[in-house]
Amino acid sequence: MARKLSGTIIIATHNAGKLREMRELLAPFGIEATSAGERGLPVPDETGHMFSENAAIKAHAAAQATGLPALSDDSGLCVAALDCAPGLFSADWAVNKDFAPAMEKVERELQKRGATAPEQRRAYFVSALVVAWPDGHEEIFEGRVHGAVIWPPRGEKGFGYDPMFVPDGSARSFGEMSAQEKHGIDWLAAPDNALSHRARAFVALARACLEPR
Amino acid sequence: MARKLSGTIIIATHNAGKLREMRELLAPFGIEATSAGERGLPVPDETGHMFSENAAIKAHAAAQATGLPALSDDSGLCVAALDCAPGLFSADWAVNKDFAPAMEKVERELQKRGATAPEQRRAYFVSALVVAWPDGHEEIFEGRVHGAVIWPPRGEKGFGYDPMFVPDGSARSFGEMSAQEKHGIDWLAAPDNALSHRARAFVALARACLEPR
């Protein structure tokens, strides 16, 4: 039985795009949320070898620093032909938070391997969510969305690698979708609508730890 | 047109198991090979985000240090449900070069995710081979073998994660196979026989850079 979340929490991120999405996903629940960035908390070293490990590092650091439950997301783009790169290093491939060179590097590596056919361009986004409490308890949830990487990138919405990722079943990239489309219409009542990796991880989190207000 | 390899080369590894396999795979070609370990070369920092990047770091370091062409392998086990972990960190999960705790960690992470059904235990081994010359030229080759991870591990042969990996089409783990079975009978003349990730990468290397003596 997972521990329930209520009252005020810390969202353990310094990433504005991620914070915006997580606030929207938390909106249906009576949760007050400030972020690690807004609270001026230091950015912990992400030394884990899995998304869930890095999410746990961030959530526990924020919970210890504030005495409040903390929610973190560690996420990335896994390109099959690149053995899950950029993966854990998805943010590191950006230059001064600009993901245009990061997307160019993904495409360059695919070209090196002659990966031009659609079946050679399979990829997925993954989100690991960790809720950590000040007493050290934690709950872990994961979500994935499979699709393909495209070139050139399309759309100005979202953040990170969104413009170069087209989820299966869609003709549009995440960069061409509103946050509501990525999260899914009424995703809480209709969890099958949850499209993005983060929304899918939130479905699991909501079932275990949250109650609609 | 790839550059050909001949004469004396350095095998840029400090891993005895890998060195043994690479010497066997090089045996059909008139190549003399010493290793970075035998030459007392330092172990370079593997700071890359892809297997091919880490292989390139090792090969260029050895080529620069010795003035000879250098061949390196960077390889690892990618478990799908773990988003390619241990992946780049495959060797790091060992404790004092003992892979028993590394295999236990893989199994523990799969158990955490309830990954007990065969389709949740898909994995592959990948090998990236890089040949680097002292003038900075490089050639890159990759090989993969898909299969599943098993528990408990089986067999005492091979090295690393071999005992917990069963390649597709086989009932036995890599730990239960001789090097000759992993490499494939007469793999040079019958490249479809190449079974292991490393043997498959060697097929590509041999076609491009080597000539049977």
From TrEMBL, chains A, B:
Q: How is the cofactor bound?
A: Binds 1 Mg(2+) ion per subunit.
Q: Which cofactor does it need?
A: Mg(2+)
Query: According to its UniProt record, which residues of this chain constitute the active site?
Result: 74 (proton acceptor)
What is an example of a GO molecular function annotated in this UniProt entry?
ribonucleoside triphosphate phosphatase activity
Pfam families the record matches: Ham1p_like
Q: Which UniProt keywords apply?
A: Hydrolase, Magnesium, Metal-binding, Nucleotide metabolism, Nucleotide-binding
Entries under CDD domains matching the protein:
HAM1
Q: What class of enzyme is it?
A: hydrolase
Q: Which InterPro entries match?
A: dITP/XTP_pyrophosphatase (IPR020922), ITPase-like_fam (IPR029001), RdgB/HAM1 (IPR002637)
Keyword Membrane found? no
Instruction: Respond yes or no to whether keyword Zinc-finger is given for this record.
Output: no
Binding-site residues for Mg(2+), renumbered to this chain: 45, 74
Per its record, the protein catalyses: XTP + H2O = XMP + diphosphate + H(+); dITP + H2O = dIMP + diphosphate + H(+); ITP + H2O = IMP + diphosphate + H(+)
Its Gene Ontology cellular component terms are: cytosol
Q: Which GO terms describe its biological process?
A: nucleotide metabolic process; purine nucleoside triphosphate catabolic process
Q: What this chain does, per the record?
A: Pyrophosphatase that catalyzes the hydrolysis of nucleoside triphosphates to their monophosphate derivatives, with a high preference for the non-canonical purine nucleotides XTP (xanthosine triphosphate), dITP (deoxyinosine triphosphate) and ITP. Seems to function as a house-cleaning enzyme that removes non-canonical purine nucleotides from the nucleotide pool, thus preventing their incorporation into DNA/RNA and avoiding chromosomal lesions.
Q: Which HAMAP family match?
A: Non_canon_purine_NTPase (MF_01405)
Give the similarity note. Answer: Belongs to the HAM1 NTPase family.
What name does the UniProt record give this protein? dITP/XTP pyrophosphatase
- Species source reads Saliniramus fredricksonii
* UniProt lineage: Bacteria, Pseudomonadati, Pseudomonadota, Alphaproteobacteria, Hyphomicrobiales
